[in-house]
Amino acid sequence: MVIYFLRHAEAEDFVDSDAARRLTAKGLEQAAKVGKFCVRNGLKPDLILSSPFVRARHTAEIVAKALGETPRIENWLACGMGPEKLFAKLAEIDNAESIMVVGHEPDIGNCIAALTGMENAIGINIRKASLTAVDTIMPVPRGGSLQFSVPVRLM
Prior knowledge:
Blueprint: E1 2-7, H1 25-40, E2 47-50, H2 54-66, E3 72-73, H3 83-91, E4 98-103, H4 107-116, E5 131-136, E6 144-150
Parallel strand pairs: 1-4, 2-3, 2-4
Antiparallel strand pairs: 1-5, 5-6
């Protein structure tokens, strides 16, 4: 299974609710750029899962639209999701060779670290709207290898 980790694009500053933060104009452009990058490079996951937080959901919707897909909103992907939760939830999914997970930091960095055998995510810097791929036989700790990590500015 290839797991594509996509951090949400740039969002407005925190005002009243972290969950309700929307994408900025720059964030909308970033998400569109990621979608075009995926299309151009033939990166079409079997399933796109997104955090319910507005900034992640909108990022997922824009990328999914470019790919002709619809994201599935998963409450367990909200801020604070740990590697154990990711592994358990992905193990429940049948018939998917590739999955895109749209979420937040430090959650994504922690999951990448756990998948690739790092003790922690201190050395991982997942920028907004960056796309990282980890190839794994099964989503389990230390069971994957980093394939690429591309910041949006290089897309």
